[in-house]
Write a structure and sequence with these properties.
- The complex is a heterodimer of chains A (682) and B (219).
- With 682 residues, chain A is an alpha/beta fold.
- Chain A is built from 20 helices and 30 strands.
- In chain A, strands 7-6-5-11-22 form a 5-stranded parallel sheet, covered by helices on one side. Chain A has a 5-stranded parallel sheet with strand order 13-20-14-15-16.
- In chain A, helix 1 packs parallel to helix 5.
- Chain A is elongated, with a radius of gyration of 31 Å.
- Chain B has 219 residues and is an alpha/beta fold.
- Chain B is built from 7 helices and 9 strands; from the N terminus they run E-H-E-H-H-E-H-E-H-E-E-E-H-E-E-H.
- The longest helix of chain B has 14 residues.
- The radius of gyration of chain B is 21 Å and the shape is elongated.
- Classes of the chains: A alpha/beta (682), B alpha/beta (219).
Chain lengths: 682, 219
């Protein structure tokens, strides 16, 4: 085997699908002088992977370029094959000569030329890549649970059962949260237990279990550190206590309110909200003469939630069964769309509850004891007047008042209705934007008892993943800070969507916690001192791919546009012109500098193709990219370069047609504008 | 920190007309923090100039601080080999480069604006004017010189409406309104009973260019 060649070039025939479109013999000839060329019929097959390991071992190459399918496929398999030959996984580079070359370029000579160029760029990139050893710092296997309601207690129980010690912090003097108080509002537990019983059995467990450290009348006051090693400071009646924990579940619950005053009504014992009625019913304190005619009125301010609607139906049924009184259920619509809830409506009707639907809010007049409700029945169209001596309204549910404070302390995002959890499709239901912090129960959405317990299970599962220590969360592709260049301007700390960067006062520089970093690259593209690089996607590596950019360069997010481009190939659609496609881990990685560099190197047009704003896998990457592109356009304008030459396109991974359209659009813009040198100011 | 913003690039292009080799020189301190003249902005300006001025050679460097002599050595080689320097430092840095490398054409790339705090990422607000005689202990920690449009020492004036300044009610808060609110919170509103005397502006710019000497530090 050869000497002095430090890079192996693996070329895949892909069972003929590549070799029939590209003259691979020519490609081999082109690179055999400079690299160890190894060709195989199917590199992704077990035999092919073995071939990679063997060839790397025999040749002694330290780096490899795999010219085959899209890097979105078989990446782990190829990395493992390299690792087996003691070649570091970060020394592998991919050249996508299948989807984005062989399959999109019908003419063989043209495709062969394009493949050579793609491989050349990948070789340049590969020569810059550096070895990486994953950090295997063990997480602290202890959890903090905030909130002693059903969700919090259930989470504590599950954690304790898996052998994980828990600190359970509750701000009240007793456990149980809302479910202990509200009886009929809630659905029963999965095994048919009453809500009170579910709460009580959890309370008994939590109080008896030695792995659970109970802290009542306590609250989190500060939090430092990152996933695997948080340092929490908790105020307790005995003073401030410090806890080192690996993960946190926030189950701070919700609170309810009802703005009776907005209906011009005073709060009396005959005008209650559902949540106010709950404890009265649970205590069995309501006398029959106080509730001969009961009216439930929902949806007066907004569509009441499923939790409220189902709770009101349960209470209505109970009234019929226990008091045998007149019960009216007045609402815009009945929302019971969940397992085990649909039947509630039928039960209510069977029990004799009168359901009245309205389109316009009813008129409600009350002297504080007797209430008159005038409602236009949506079905008959006629007005109905209902007299009631107990009127119950559906509560407005909002996150617990402690949520705002917790948001600051935990440094996490809130969703649109101020509940926890950012509104992003990539976040699983219990995930926050910070790894190691999870939400469960009423603080993240309006949740019933079974739902809250499900949240607890999911959150504990996520924690199990972290504590197993096996998951390194995409080890290599993380931000790395050059402590000499960092001037602690705080830009990265502020702009990290996952709050994975802190100040390290020892080095007087920002520091990234690898386990907390999601690898989006936002920080490295924002840093004004160029002190941050993204491992495996350094500026040099990314720009190495476009030393000869051609006419159009498209920076494509690997989560959307890059996959869409692959799909163009998979479906054998033709790309209307040659585009240099450069993958980036997220649009947030696209530095304004890249855009100018491409124009500087000769590109006539630059495209940024990435995800829609609310589907960015890294929350704010797509937004940041759009903002930066505006800045780039302002610079272009100042030097007389038409801003239209920078084209922004948002798409999903499935938008193959949109990808082609965008390229076509860029092409026609460039045709209209002519060569860029004509436009420039000097 | 001192903040600044980059001049429009077409103005910079006019400055360097006739020069063949141009060094874009960044400063690694204040103007890096305010995203005006650090290594990143140097890269952007240099790249833009390369696109716009094909006949010129544009080189780059960023040093720790352009307001200290010792750091200039890090740029010396490049300054010597170029025909003109475009400094991305504040006005002080630009002048100091010009002083240190006398005979070299040095041009400003930034408009130096003010002494600021970062209100939030991307938003800087003027908090100090370096008047040389601080009165913050009397005004609840809010500067009447920098944060009152008229630098009044006994405000607010009649142009303060709903806490906003008549100079630009949309964007400028009335400094004196803020002072009164802050002092009220501190329970020190009566400190305003005492009229402040005329401000002696001789300690500020009105006394001519200032120089500060610490005898104990002189070597």
């Amino acid at each position: 085997m050869s000497e002095n060649k430090d890079t192996a070039l693996f070329i895949c025939d892909c069972g003929g699908t590549i070799s029939q479109s590209i003259d691979l013999g020519k490609v081999e000839d082109k690179f055999k002088e400079t690299t160890e060329v190894c060709r195989h019929s199917a590199l992704c097959s077990p035999d092919g992977r073995l071939f990679i390991t063997d060839s790397l071992e025999k040749s002694g190459c330290e780096r490899a370029v795999i010219a085959a399918c899209s890097p979105t496929m078989f990446q782990q398999e190829f990395k493992q094959a390299a690792n087996k030959a003691a070649v570091n996984e970060c020394m592998i580079s991919r050249a996508n000569i299948r989807e984005q070359c062989a399959w999109t370029t019908p003419k063989k000579s043209k495709a062969t030329k394009a493949a050579v160029s793609i491989i050349e760029d990948s070789l340049k990139r590969c020569s810059l890549q550096e070895q990486f050893k994953p950090l295997r710092e063990k997480p602290v296997k202890k959890a903090l649970v905030i909130g002693g309601g059903v969700a919090g207690m259930k989470a504590a129980k599950l954690l304790a059962e898996s052998g994980i010690p828990v600190a359970l912090v509750e701000k009240e003097a007793q456990l149980g949260g809302n479910s202990a108080k509200l009886g009929y509002v809630y659905q029963q537990g999965r095994n048919g237990d009453s809500p009170g019983h579910v709460a009580q059995s959890l309370i008994d467990y939590v109080q008896a279990e030695s792995k659970i450290e109970l802290m009542l009348e306590s609250g989190l006051v500060s939090l430092q550190g990152q996933v695997g090693n948080f340092s929490a400071s908790i105020n307790t009646p005995k003073g401030k206590v410090s806890q080192i924990i690996g993960a946190i579940i926030v189950a701070a619950g919700y609170q309810s309110s009802y703005p009776l005053e907005k209906l011009g009504l005073d709060r009396t014992t005959a005008l209650l909200s559902l949540m106010e009625l709950g404890p009265i019913l649970a205590a069995g304190k309501l006398r029959r003469e106080k509730c001969r005619r009961v009216a439930f009125v929902l949806d007066m301010f907004h569509q009441d939630s499923r939790l409220i609607c189902a709770g009101a139906l349960r209470s209505a049924i109970m009234f019929r069964e226990k008091y045998n009184n007149e019960v009216y259920f007045i609402c815009k619509s009945v929302r019971v769309n969940a397992e085990g809830l649909e039947i509630l409506y039928q039960k209510a009707r069977d029990a004799g509850v009168v359901v009245v639907k309205f389109d316009e809010n009813p008129k409600i007049i009350s002297d504080g004891l007797n209430t008159q409700i005038e409602v236009n029945d949506a079905w008959s169209g006629g007005p109905i007047v209902i007299q009631s001596d107990l009127t119950v309204f559906g509560d407005l549910l909002t996150p617990n008042s402690s949520v705002d404070g917790l948001k600051q302390i935990l440094n996490v995002d809130l969703g649109p209705q101020s509940f926890f959890q950012d509104d992003n499709v990539w976040l699983s239901p219990v995930m926050s934007n910070r790894r190691g912090i999870y939400f469960a129960g009423g603080c993240r959405a309006e949740r019933d008892i079974p739902e809250s317990m499900l949240d607890a299970e999911s959150a504990v599962q996520e924690i199990g993943r972290i504590f197993s220590g096996k998951d390194d969360f995409g080890a290599a592709e993380k931000a790395v800070i050059d402590t000499d260049k960092c001037i602690l301007c705080l830009t990265c700390i502020r702009s990290c969507p996952h709050k994975a960067i802190d100040i390290d006062y020892n080095t007087e520089a920002a520091v990234v916690t690898e386990r907390a970093c999601w690898g989006c690259g936002v920080c490295s593209a924002e840093c004004p001192a160029k002190a941050i690089q993204h491992r495996n996607f350094t500026d040099d590596e990314i720009l190495a791919e476009t030393e000869n950019p051609g006419r159009i360069v498209a920076f494509c997010c690997v989560n959307s546009a890059y996959k869409a481009a692959d799909l163009v190939g998979t479906l054998r659609m033709e790309l209307p012109c040659e585009v240099k496609i450069v993958p980036v881990p997220c649009a947030g990685k696209i530095d304004t500098l890249y855009i100018l560099k491409e124009f500087e190197r000769g590109a006539e047009g630059v495209m940024l193709l990435f995800c829609h704003e609310d589907t960015c896998q890294y929350i704010s990457g797509s937004t940041r990219a759009a903002q930066r592109s505006e800045y780039a356009k302002s610079i272009m304008q100042q030097i007389g370069l038409e801003p239209e030459r920078l084209l922004i396109g948002r798409m999903t991974a499935m938008d193959k047609d949109k990808f082609v359209e965008q390229v076509q659009q860029m092409k026609s813009i460039l045709e209209n504008l002519g060569k860029k040198d004509k436009a420039l100011k000097s | 920190m001192i903040v600044g913003e980059r001049k429009p690039i077409d103005e910079i292009i006019k400055m360097i007309e006739g020069y063949k080799k141009v060094l874009v020189m960044g400063c690694g301190t204040c103007v890096t923090v305010c995203h005006a003249g650090g290594e990143k902005e140097v890269g952007l300006l240099a790249s833009a100039l390369r696109i716009a001025c094909k006949d010129k050679e544009i080189i780059e460097c960023t040093i720790e601080r352009q307001c200290d002599m010792e750091f200039m050595d890090d740029a010396r080689e490049k300054v010597v080999e170029c025909d003109a320097v475009v400094s991305m430092a504040c006005g002080a840095g630009v002048q100091f480069v010009s002083d240190v490398f006398e005979g070299k054409a040095v041009f400003p790339a930034l408009n130096t604006t003010f002494y600021a705090v970062t209100e939030e990422q991307g938003v800087w607000a003027e908090y100090c004017q370096g008047c040389g005689n601080c009165v913050l202990h009397l005004t609840g920690g809010i500067c009447p010189v920098a944060r009152c449009s008229k630098s009044l020492m006994n405000g607010p004036c009649g142009g303060s409406v709903d806490g906003k300044c008549e100079v630009d009610p949309k964007n400028i808060d009335c400094g004196w309104h803020q002072i009164v609110e802050r002092l009220t919170k501190l329970g020190k509103l009566d400190s305003l009973d005492e009229l402040m005397p005329y401000k002696d502006w001789s300690s500020a710019r009105d006394g001519g260019p200032r120089k500060m000497i610490r005898e104990d530090l002189l070597l």
